[in-house]
Amino acid sequence: MRTANTFRLALLLLAGLAAACNQTATTETATTASAVAAPDTAALAKQPGWWKETVVYQLYPRSFQDSDGDGEGDLRGIIARLDYLKSLGVGTVWLNPIYASPNDDSGYDISDYRRIQPAFGTMADFDALLKGLHQRGIKLVMDLVVNHSSDEHAWFKSARSSRTSPYRDYYHWWPAEKGKPPPRWSFFDVNSDAWRYDAATNSYYLHYFSRKQPDLNWENPKLRQEIYAMMRFWLDKGIDGFRLDAFQFASKDRTFPPLPAGYEKNIIKYYGNGPHLHDYLQEMNREVLRHYNVMTVAEGAGTGPADAMLFVDPARRELNMAYHFEGMAIGRGPDGYRLTDFKRIYTRWDSAFARKGWLSIYLANHDQPRMLSKFGDDRPAFRAPAAKLLNTFVLTMRGTPYCYYGDELGMSNIRFDHITDYRDVETRNGYQRVKNRGGDLTAFLAQAKRTARDNGRTPFPWTAAAQAGFTTGTPWLKLNPNYPVINAAAQDWDSASVLNHFRRATALRRQRPVLVHGQYQLLDAANPHIYAYTRTLGAEKALVVLNFTSEKHAWALPAGLALGGAPWLNNYPTFSPAATLALRPWQALVLPLR
User: pTM of the predicted model, to two decimals?
Assistant: First the structure.
């Protein structure tokens, strides 16, 4: 999750109720009008750090813009689109890995932490990108992938060459003379086996992810110092923070005790929060992070809010923002999700972090399908209002919003028919695993159409021209065939587009501190169709009403709530204030309250 500008939000005048009662809007518009040393948790939590006030745009570099015709996005391509990023109103870009990598797991298998992947460009290109972002008031956060490296990293090449290698203890090994190691489950391995036999030294190495991603041994202080030095290298260049990828798995019990049957069904419980995890994070903070004004994000962060708070309680001096997965766990099946579950999850997490700590708010990323296809309705009749509603939700909740590239346009799942169209190691190895076991490949592909990560990685559609303006070559991953309709050029001039609604929503968040720091209060919790909540900061109060369905619904204002003016944001062109709101399909309203 990326860092962002130090935005200072300006208060605007509230529109009068009398004017609103006589007004029917005719266009879809929005009313526009540091770290502290003392370990006082409550006081620290009240500090409006820049990373609380920013809007993060997650940019998947391989799919954003190709500048040289090789079919892969690159740094020069991003540089060419910096003014577009500025136009979105985002304050921070989170850049997925751009380090040197064999690309077994799309860059999350790093072979050199201080080199740029050649397909993406050079270090000079990176320096130009960072300068261009900062000139436009946009911060840059990078992925820190240090639970594992690539098996092509110089450390691992040396480690696997000899048991006496000085880098041997940078990884986890099990000598074969001790027999087979205790079973450990792998996320990506074809056989789900996290131990891989390596004949050169007659040993097994540990890989929680793919075979080409051996896990680093954080119990080794020399390894930790190497990582800290690498972090300083990037921070001294001027980047604005890190998202710690899969770091909750970094600490391990090196005796590898047996785990109970079925442990893989509750993998975070058994793999996450190892015996020294928080010791390492506190050391990282002491040695590196506290010396820079940066944003730091804990991906995963345990099994629930209590675990996550350990990562981001300001008094503990570890990281400053949690990025939980619970919201992503629903809606993966063919029957979708229940809105009451969705509301319960986000309300539960907000409640746990209401007084201290800080959360990320997101509905999509590089590991998920498109949010429109999962949580909304991507049919042509509902695509635009549903996409606008989901963006409204992300940008009006308490916490730092993360917007995934293309969601500002309403991009949808590509739904490949054939396994050969997929490029992701998770999907391809998962297919092979099912095939090896004689499983139902048709069912696997049907599930992949809903949930595969490549659904969210298709190239960005800039125009309706050949290859969507993404490349002059052959894209590394097929373009979504709907790009002639869903593209940035078509939406840029259309004031009612998903893109321009997104711009209004980011502007509103900058202009209204209540949407950043205000108290959240859920309304009508049992309603299976409507998600409604208030945000309150001092005398300012806002109501957010979201119709999460493709049908019309009426929603009565709760007793004690009175509208205080024209909508701050509305994804339909008209609104008539009333005691009972007549909501159109996927309508999203942000309303001031008296």
Answer: 0.91
